[in-house]
Give the backbone structure.
Amino acid sequence: MIAQLSIATGFLLILIGLYGALIQRNILRMIVAFTVADTGVNIVIVAVGFMAGRTAPILDAAVPVADAAARIIDPLPQALVLTAIVIGLGTTALMLAYAFKLYEKRRTLDIDKFTDLRG
Amino acid sequence: MQFEWIKIPYALLTLFIVVNYGMLLGAFIQKIGARVGRRRGVPIWQNYADLVKNFGLRTSITHGVMFYLGPVFRLTGGIGLLLFVPTIYGSEMFSNLSFAGDLILALYFVFFGTLGMALGAGESGHPHAAIGISRGLSQVTAAELPLALAVFSVALQYQTLSITDIVSAQQGGVLHWTLFTNPLAVAAAMLSFLGSMMRPPFDVVLAPQEIPIGPPTEYHSSYLALMQTNRAIFPVAKIVVYMNLFFGGAASWPVFFLKVFLIYMVSVFVGVAFPRFRVEQSIRWFLVWAVPLGILSILLA
Amino acid sequence: MTSPLYIIAVALAAAFLLGLLREQWRSLAYPVTLAALAFMSWLSASWLWALASGSASPVDIYTAGTAPPFAINLRMALPEAVLTLLINLTGLFSALYLKSALLARGRRGMAVLLVAIMALSGIVLTRDIFNLFVFLELVVIATGGLVLLSDHAHALSAGFKYLVVSQVISILLLIGIIFAYHATGTLNIDGMAEAVPGLQNAGASQAFELAFFLMFIALVAELKPFPANGWALDIYEAAHPAFSAIFSAGAGTAALYAVDKLLLIGGPAWLDMATGVGIVTFVAGNLLALPQSNDRRLLGYSSVAQIGLILAVLGQRDILGEDTYFIAGGLLLSHAVAKAGLFWLSGLLAGRQLVDWADLRERPMPVFAFVTFAAMLSGLPPFPGFYAKWELVHHLAGSGRLVLLALVLFGALIEAGYLFRWFGYILKREPPGEADFCRVIFDKPHRVLPVMVAVAAGWALAFVWGELASSLLGRSNLLLALPLLFALSFLLLDWLPAWVKNSLAIAGLVAFFAATWTDYDALRMIFAIIFTLGGALTLLASYHVHGRRVGFYPAAMLMFAGMVMLIRADTSFDFFAAWELLTVGSYFLILRGKHSEPHALSYILFSLGGAFLIMAGFAIAAQGAPQFALASLAHVAAPFAPWVFLLLAIGFMTKTAAIGLHIWLPGAHAEAETDVSPMVSGILLKAGLYGLMVLLLAMGKQQLYGIELTHVLLWVAALTALLGNLMAVFQEDAKRLLAYSSIGQMGYALFGLALMNHLGWLMALVFVINHYIYKAMLFLAVGGVAKRTGTREMYRMGGLIRLMPLSFIAVLVGIIAVSGVPPLSGFGGRWVFYNAILASDYRLPMVVLFLAGPIAFLYLFRLIYTIFLGQLKDELRRVKEAPFWIVLPQMIYVALLIAFAVVPGLALHRVDTYLNQFFPEGGLSWAGGEITSNYGYWNPVAIMIIVGVIFCTVFAWLLFVNRRAQPVKQFNIVFSAERPFRPETTHFAWNFFAPYRKALGFLTQPLVTIFWTTVTDLLHTAGDLGRRLYNGNGQTYAFHFLAFVVIVFFLVGL
Amino acid sequence: MNILMTAMTGLLCLAMLGSAWVAVTGKGSGQRVSIAILASGLVSLFASVLFLILAAPDVAMTEAAIGSGLTTFLFFFVLSRVRAGRQDGS
Amino acid sequence: MVKRFLALLLLAGLGGIFASLLAGYIPDAELNLTARYYADHAAGDLGAANIVTAIIVTYRGLDTLGEVTVLFLAASIVGLVLTHRQKHDPRPGQPARTRAPVGELLTTGTRFLVPLILLLGVYVFMNGHLTPGGGFQGGAIIASGILLLLLADPLKHFSHGLISAVESLAGLFYILLGLVGLVLAGGFLDNRILPAGELGALISAGAIPLIYSLIGLKVGAEFSSMLASLSETEEL
């Protein structure tokens, strides 16, 4: 149940984020919207790997190696999400640098003003 | 049919007869026209007089090589046409040089003289000559078409292109003539005939009023004499083709003289009855009236 | 073998190492970068060599010492080796090209470049879907950085748009990946592919399908499909050309391979979607490229289109089978090398408009480079795209996917359209000011080298694909065909003076004939003689040109090579390859004319269009086989036969300029150079007739919906003859007049073929011979006159007979022959014609042909009269006879004409006998000088003698009575009692047949021209409408992408 | 226990969605943008809590440190530059 | 308005896709093949208690290398973008930038806190194979220390040389370790070049702690470099 709830939330976050990215004209706000959507993606990934009643995939005294397979949840999505988060940060940083340069050049952050190349 | 040396004197004999006949015929028809118009007209030997006079003229000028050669082409065309067609059916003597080729040769050789004339007139540098050629060529493309169709219809009808064979197929009575076996073709051909005789209503090429006599404007003296000779030969040669194809040919000289005269008269009668067409009018006229006849004759052949 | 992992490790190590170097040590950092890229390239190359030669087998590389699917693995097999080599080499040479930009930006820029190339290789190598995502993100981010290497004012906004859409794409990709993982329990691509069929229940497989859709659409979006591609196009336009080269060649390649891997997972169910998206992109991309004027944007659209085509090919793997990689690879490598080369080339030029490329004019090497690239993109032989297209079309036709086939060819034609238009600009437009190209060449060899490498790579690929195809088709490598090699060798000899090359060319043609003449049957012999000896004869005229004449001989010899290969071809493939070669060669020849740019373009478009129809026809006839012997056209199965016939006939008739397809001819023939017009008119047109002969011999009469197709051909031929002649009448331009006359003459020849009887064919052959002789002669004569007078408008000439008597004689003999007046050879054609139609049942079309006959007379007279007769113009009084080398062939032609007129049997007797095989009825009998048919007879010798004798007698008589004729001056004419004093007012020449125009001018309404103009206008309008989609707003592009996803989703109907 | 967890998760999700809505809607710049940035940081923070619930401590840590921490700072850096520019009255 | 409507329409379509994904989602009852392998072998083969770390550093080490490279790229490009202008427009002789002085509290606090934060960061990535956390988290923590420094003294110029040296060396060693794995052990980035040690000990799990530390250093340096680049931009 928790998994489904989380997945639904993740999806909604993605949709909300994309909505913002599609309608906001301010470049900074577009980027903000994308981070929201990224968060949504991360939640979906982790939630898909979630299995109710199991523990985090860390072996210690409580979770011995022997019955790890029955006790822990799928570690792989978590590994993927780590990667995804970091990549998201890289992209966000890059877009922010772009935003800064665009502003420097035109003194505006309105995406509609950057349509010089077309057709 | 093979070449024999004896054919040469025979051919010259035919030529001699036809030249004289053509001269007399031309003058005779002029005279008829004059009499109808209640004038006296020229004497019957007028053409001989003109010929002698023109050959006799001392002063003559030339505009260049093609100008000089124009009449030569013209006359060669006339003589050649005459000699490529058998004159008298059934006569070895007057089958001329028809061994060289068949009907198609005759049809295409007509253009030889036309071309030479046009080239010679062209070199004269006279604009009227050029205008005359422009009109003449324009008109002939439409006028020739019904003839070509009719000829083809006849060839289809008799399944041969040999003139002698066509004539022989028409022997055995008037009703065997193409005139009666294939009237549509003959009608088309005769309309075309009108167009090629340079008489009203299709005489815009010579147009004596606006462009004094058209292509030959600049010609005089012996050049003109050659062309006059041709004017005696060429219509007759052409009528011989018509006669052979459509009117049963001629088995003897009297029949020949009569048939040629009568066919010639057709164009004369039409000429006095109709006013002159402009070029585009005559083209349309041929396309509207004569060509469909020709097409019909082919489809029915 | 060194592990392919070093491609990744070395790139990264170098990138990190660059961080240790201080900003100031750029001159050290740059060699490090180059060395790393060179190493990566070497590594790929060594694998390629080992795999191709069989000394190594494909390997899977496990990372972390663990087998997949538990750890990431990479694979190095032949495709990977090829693609990584392509990517790394593009990277290496782009880095070389980027030298100044990289040195200006410093080590960071170089590191980003290294990572970008590494990531592209990684996409190709990896077998793990998430790893692929990581590499993809690396590419995206690196692209975001590399775009900024450009000085373009809008690079920044272009990069931002790219990032925005990439974000959306990666969101969908991630969601897809995680759900696919959830469904299959693995991230390994091969593992997923294995797991999919084993999915337990419908629910699981449904969930997987959805997940797969998301992954697939996201990766497909990386291919920039229409319409979701606005975000990438700006990159092409704004980025540094060297980066655009990577973006087009490298990124496109990598993304395609990624999609290919994904298709492995999805299985056949997804092929249709790939095909659909691909083909729509291909057509739309090319359509959109059509109205572009910016070179790089055009290249961008073209890249998008090409990749779309390859995607469509991947989507057809169900029928392509093992040939998929041969086809897709050929297209992909052609595209990559050519695009990289073109982008690099664009960086050498200052202007960004297509017309600015005129800077390249007069510079053979870059022009050659452009030609190579354009030919590769348009799929012309001998480049890989040619083989690929051939195979593709054959497979499509074999499986009955005709709509797809039509779309592929349609798109390819548009593509050729804009590429060749562009090439026309290069050669024919004025350079936009002072060209600084020369300076660039010497200043920046590092920018020229990559272009040259791309050219070399293009030809190397041509060789490799020729080898591959040779094993596929069981024939020797096209590129090694002797005639083609001979033609190409003139590229290397282009530095020689023209007369040396001309002698070589003539010697080559003659020698080729001497070596092969025993191979031909009577029919082919006629064509062989015209193509080789006839070509050599026209080439005599080329001696009049001094200097080096760069580019002429390769083009001319390419055309001749194509023609001789055409008659020697006995399979459909050889035939088509030769057909394309002669088309291309003649296009270059025609383009050499001063004002021939638009005409050459319409020539190549019609020709390629026709060629595509031929290819489609062959493909349908082959029914899945890669090729077939031409003779087996006779055995094409019944339902296809008429269609094959129709396609091939239309294709060939494009070349003979049948009415409706003729509008390219007048301009192309008229605007060509003096010695080119006779080649393209007198010789080249015969190639089309040859094709028709081959077709009709094999297939005979075909019926479609109860209509006999040869009957249709008859009508087309008759109308062609009539309208061609009629239009010739109204021309003021002498060469155009002759060109229209050729249309009419080809109509006659086609008519003869379509009669499908013995004499009809004989007539066609008479026309072939005659038309070659007199049209070559007339074009030379008129060309010589035009050269001397400086105009082709006939009414500006006049009275030239005295100044150019030899040309006059040639024209005189020519027009007598053309008009068919005895005694010259044209009459023979007419005579055979009449006999032929007597033997046939078709009567109505003949009527039309009858009408056409005398019309020839009109334009011919006009030709000779307005040029040579009439009044000489003042400004032309000093004109001299045409140059010796132009006159000499004319005199030879005069002799030939007369010879052919007297003894036509020399050429025709053998053919007549030969035709008995096919049409036993109605042959001629040849007895002595007389030729007899079933209907009539004809004695050419007698005619010549009789006419000659009469003519000479009359002439002698005239000379005798008129020996004292006095030449007079020009204006000594009776002109309304005045003497004209200006030739202009007296030379009745302009609109000479005005009355005729009044009567029949309505037939020459340019309906066909209007039709084709409307077609091209519509295409342009469609392109322009499409352009409105791309409004430049990054957000809109994100909209496009999402709309694309949603629409495709509903179309796929999961 | 389970129901409690689920309810808590639900609340968390609602809070996240609310913050997200704040982050992406609304017009204008300046102050409003910083609210949006903060709201998105808040989404990340809630997300890291959610990750803990989903038994992913590693992810939770990362999301907290990177998603809500560093990213937000990056935004503010740029925003401050841009805002300063606006005050320059260009 | 049209834009909003279209956006909603499209997102409704996308939402439809998502909804069917959600509807088809059935949580696994058992670990799937891959996860099961990790559960069974990560500890035994690699000696890492934190399986996520084992996956990140070893099994999917190539991803992680890519991930580090993403940051490297981002840092490089941010540097490239933001320093670009200064190259062209050095503005010599400009008066020193002035800014409202930061509070005393912050300055002092910074001096006190930064070493602690750095230490925490190091701890986090050193223990990545045992407890939650690792190179990325530790790197982020280190970067936040740097951030604090920047906040305290906005005019402070960081030695880009030092940052990039750290970054580069960490990266180079990372790759070298990977290659050593290729040569000595089972493949690229195989951590078994060092003994696995005892599960749960600090010095265990082969090269994992070493690699994760390098990652931590590198990530920290990359974040720092980004922050520094941004902070050095001139105010517009």
